[in-house]
Amino acid sequence: MAHRKQELEALRDELIDRFERYKAHKEQRGGPLDKDMEEQSIELQNDDVIEALQQEAEDELRQVMHALERIDNGEGDLCEECGEAIDARRLSAVPYTTLCRDCAELPEATRGGGE
Fold this sequence. Notes:
Blueprint: H1 2-28, H2 37-72, H3 88-93, H4 101-105
């Protein structure tokens, strides 16, 4: 469990750095758009991509923080939905998972809101 916690903490730090870089990029881009219409289009597309990447990093960071909280509470290797142990191979592949494979495969509408 200690190794997984270290892995999650490293991932958390990486995601925070990534999120801050995206945020800094967006703040830099606050100036006027290029006068060339083609360049404007490219700039707007780039901004959309950065926005999507930032949202993805934020979502993953939220999952990592939740998994770390569960580890601190002694629940890190138990499925949040059914309470059964999460397979070590799954935890290795997806260290921030909070659901066993069976529960993760259920449609989200039938779960209590886990992952």
